[in-house]
Design a protein that fits this description.
31% helix, 4-stranded antiparallel β-sheet
Length: 153
């Protein structure tokens, strides 16, 4: 590992865990309609998988790029090579952009909780990473921007 590592937790996963348990209890209790058992069981398992997949957001330096991973179930991950970064800025997401992974008019956003984020402008577009330590991440990334990229912005 390199010079940056941060894991952000959010209370949203607790709501998802509770919802999954509720769906699974309903699946067991609703025995008069078998199709409801399957429906609630499937919904409960899907919500449980989402809760485990979005339990935390880890952002770290992995050598020649910045890795962004939701987890602990590693279904969603992204990476931006430092050589492609053109500019970095502390930013804020809008309420409409919400939580999770979204493509918005301002580029991709990966956010777990809160509105603070870092906008990473790179050769393929803009990638915003939600974090509760936006200034520290932006400062770290500024040390990784290639020297010749300032003229490309």
């Amino acid at each position: 590992m390199g010079g940056y590592w941060h894991r952000q937790h959010a209370p949203l996963c607790l709501v998802l865990y509770a919802l999954a348990v509720l769906f699974l209890i309903l699946a067991v209790q609703l025995d008069e309609e078998p199709w409801l058992n399957y429906l609630f069981a499937a919904c409960g398992l899907l919500v449980l998988v989402c809760a485990v997949a979005f339990h935390h957001l880890t952002v770290f330096d992995d050598g020649d790029g910045l890795a962004v991973r939701f987890g602990p179930l590693p279904l969603f991950r992204a990476r931006v090579r430092y050589a492609t970064i053109r500019d970095v800025a502390v930013d804020r997401s809008t309420l409409l952009e919400g939580l999770g992974i979204h493509l918005s008019p301002r580029g991709w956003i990966w956010n777990l909780w809160g509105r603070d984020c870092v906008a990473i402008r790179h050769t393929a577009g803009t990638f915003r990473v939600g974090t509760d330590e936006a200034m520290a991440l932006a400062d770290f990334l500024r040390t990784k921007i290639p020297p010749d990229s300032a003229s490309v912005v």
